Amino acid sequence: GWIDGAQLTRLAEPLAKNGYGQYLLSLLDHGPVE
């Protein structure tokens, strides 16, 4: 199922050291890219 913003943030924080985490955080800021 879908995860909410808070869950996504918790998942992304440890990954923020690499590009994928920063990508996830950018999705939170800008919404999904079509």
UniProtKB/TrEMBL annotation:
It comes from the Bacteria. This is Glucose-1-phosphate thymidylyltransferase. It comes from Alkalisalibacterium limincola.
